[in-house]
Structure formats: C-alpha cells, structure tokens
Amino acid sequence: MGAYEEKKETCGTICLKYLLFTFNFLFWLAGGVVMAVGVWTLVEKSDYISLLSSKTYAASAYILVLAGAIVMVTGVLGCCATFKEQRRLLRVYFVLLLCIFLLEILAGVLAYIYYQQLNEELKQNLRETMVQKYQQKEQEHVTRAVDKLQQEFKCCGSNSSSDWAESAWIRSIKADGRVVPDSCCKSRTDGCGRRDHPSNVYKVEGGCITKLENFILDHLKIIGAVGVGIACVQIIGMVFTCCLYQSLKAEPY
Questions:
Q1: If we measure between CA atoms, which residue out of 20, 13, 11, 12 comes closest to residue 93?
Q2: Which GO terms of the cellular component aspect does the record hold (predicted)?
Q3: CA atoms within 13 A on the CB side of 8
Q4: Which candidate, 187, 196, 124, places its Cα nearest to that of 164?
C-alpha cells in the first residue's frame, strides 16, 4: 500500500511538472507579446507622446517593456526550477511571478487614471503646444509630431483649422504666406497651406483633439487587455507552483 501511495505521489508530481513546463512556455511567449506592445508604443508612437504633457502614457509603456522582459527571464527560470525540482528555485520563481503581477496592476492603474484625465489634458495642452511650439527652434520633435498627427488622422488644428491663426509660426515671415501648415492639406505639396478652403485642407469636426484622444484610448484598452490576460495566466502559474512546491515538500533540496 505504501509503495502504491509513493507511486501515486510521483505520478502527481510528474503531471504537475509537465503542466508547469507548458505554462512556462506559454508564459515566455506572452512575455514577448507584452514587451512587443510596450516597444511598439514607445518606438512607433513616440512622436505622439511628445505632444502630451503627462508622462503617464509613456510610463505605462515602459512598465510593460520591463514586465515583458522579466516575464521572459522568469519563464526560463520556471522551466529550470520545474525540471530540477528545486524548492529554492520554485520560491524565487513564485516571488518573480508575484512581482510581475504587481507591475501589471501598477500599469493598469496608471492606464485607468490616465484614461480619466486624458480629455482634459488634451484640451488644456494640445492647442497650446501646436500654436506655440510648431516650427520653433529646438522643437523639431513637436513639429514632426504635429505634421504626422495631421497627415495620419486627416485633421487640421487642435479643435479646427482656425486655431492656426494664433500660431507664432503662422504669424511670422517664415510661414511665407501660409494660413495653415502644409500637413493640413489633403494633397500635400510645398506651400499648399496658403489656401485653407475645405477642398484643400482637412476640416474635421472636433479637430485633432478628438482623433488623438480616440487613438490613445484605443491603445490604452489594448494595454489593459494584454495586462489582464497575462495577469490571469500568472494566477494559474502561481497555483501550479504552489502545488508542485507542496508535492516536493518532503524531498530534500
């Protein structure tokens, strides 16, 4: 009977090992996805980040990159801990899972807070940034971001094209008679901003504020969904880890 119980426990441990190994492989892949989302936000959309006064959006992306990197390292560590059946490694693995879980909660909280204040921030800062910093010395990143924003989202001005009438650049001789930047034009050519007729420039209700707000909100939803998904997977992993740890409790390490 004792031999049967010993065999039964061994089979249970083996099953847990392979379940945890499978989990770690999936977890490692998920870490790559999390890191890719964070890097994509920082690299592909970095121009838009320069238009925001708050650093919360960028901070959420940096947290995702950090969490993704830790997840990938943790996945490898989890595989080692599982096959070597070392309780110390399992404890380290569990602690790392818990740290990643807390990081993702932090990213989620930051994203939610930013979600609530985004509209007010854009109303207060986007127009000021566009009219005061566009085509100004040492503000090339803002100029590039505004041009990209207006071309990609087919909009002109923060609220409307008339916002550009107050632009420091438009009022200067450097504008060369333009009433809006060339990036407002439907068919962009050099000097096309001298004519702001609806047939020539984008006239979008709500202006670029609405377009940028919708874009960031959609992106925050992606960040939130990825974070929640990984967090759910982690909970399963922590349960498996505890079960395997208990099954190895009587064994020396």
A1: 20
A2: plasma membrane
A3: 5
A4: 196
Residue from 198, 202, 199 nearest 181 by CA: 202
**What's CA 56's distance to the chain center, in Å?**
11
CATH number (domain holding residue 159): 1.10.1450
**Pair (107, 15) in one structural domain:** yes
Say whether both 181 and 243 belong to one domain.
no
pLDDT single digits (tens) 19-61: 777 777 777 887 787 788 778 777 766 677 777 766 766 777 7
Residue 151 lies in a domain: yes
Residue 165: HSE in the Cβ half-sphere, 13 Å Cα cutoff: 6
Rounded distance between C-alpha atoms, residue 161 and residue 204, angstroms? 9
Q: Which domain holds residue 198?
A: 127-207
Torsion of CA 184, 215, 129, 114, to 10 degrees: 170
pTM value surpassing 0.85: no
Residue 182 lies in a domain: yes
Q: Measured in whole angstroms, how far is the alpha carbon of residue 204 from the centre of its chain? A: 27
The amino acid at 139: Q
